[in-house]
Amino acid sequence: MNNGKLMGKTVVVTGAAQGIGKAYAERLASEGAQIILVDLKPEPLAEAVEDLRAKGLSAEGKVLDVSNEQDVKRFAQELGQQHPKIHGLINNAAIFSTIKLKPFWEIDASEWDRVMAVNIKGPWMLVGALLPYLRAAGSASVVNIGSDAVWMGKAGYMHYVASKAAVYGMTHAMARELGGDDIRVNTLSPGFTETNVPRETFTQAQLNGIMSAQSLKRVANTDDIVGVASFLISDDSRWLTGQTLHTTGGLLFR
Ligand SMILES: NC(=O)c1ccc[n+]([C@@H]2O[C@H](COP(=O)([O-])OP(=O)(O)OC[C@H]3O[C@@H](n4cnc5c(N)ncnc54)[C@H](O)[C@@H]3O)[C@@H](O)[C@H]2O)c1
What we know:
- By secondary structure, this protein is α/β, with parallel strands linked by helices.
- The chain contains eight helices and nine strands.
- The strands form two sheets. The protein has a seven-stranded parallel β-sheet, with helices on both faces. Strands 7-8 form a two-stranded parallel ribbon.
- α1 (19-30) crosses α8, α3 runs parallel beside α4 (109-136) and α4 (109-136) runs parallel beside α6 (158-178).
- The site of nicotinamide-adenine-dinucleotide has 28 residues, from α1.
């Protein structure tokens, strides 16, 4: 697909070495955007960049721990020198597929802090650090990735659920504070989405429960949701800010 809808836009996608983040990057690049893929893991990141380039897409990779304040500042400064205008940011990096399910009283405080640092402090720091370049774009779009696990009150990873709950509040406040700069901020909120990455965050019993609760009766994959990310980054959503789009096959209605 190349309809050129995102031609001329430079977009940062975090957590883009694998899973849904990589799929966002590929879809946006295929629509003409210049993509900066960001991830903690250098090797899969390099492979993801190569993969996109081999398909003739414009992609570069930057290794970054989004929870490290100094690194985020340095990353933003260096990126701003290369790309003085950033038109979009997808705050997708999170501790997710590596989480082991356990009751909340067995989560130790250091694991709690790490999940919060990556899943909510990181996105907040990145938007702040990239602000000069988002402003310079004239009009920009930030997409924070939530999770409908919040609205289901899913058991077994309360630190994750709490961190993602904070994303919605952050989106609302950022949308208010950045509206004057014509920077839109929305949340894309996936439900269960299959990727090729193994994970422990879903049991078969939970999956069965979700299947019976979803209106659309099949398991979602990344192709089902990347178009919504593209819409939120594109000018087609230019009058949308502070909103949540639930890409869940009709799980809950809110
Ligand atoms: N897959 C689902 O069913 C689902 C459902 C709801 C929400 N989500 C959300 O969608 C996003 C992507 O999900 P996924 O299934 O691809 O997850 P994933 O765990 O497969 O991928 C997460 C990516 O983030 C990177 N990352 C982790 N910590 C980082 C850090 N400190 N700095 C930079 N990068 C870091 C990882 O290296 C990895 O590439 C996440 O925000 C997740 O919470 C996923």
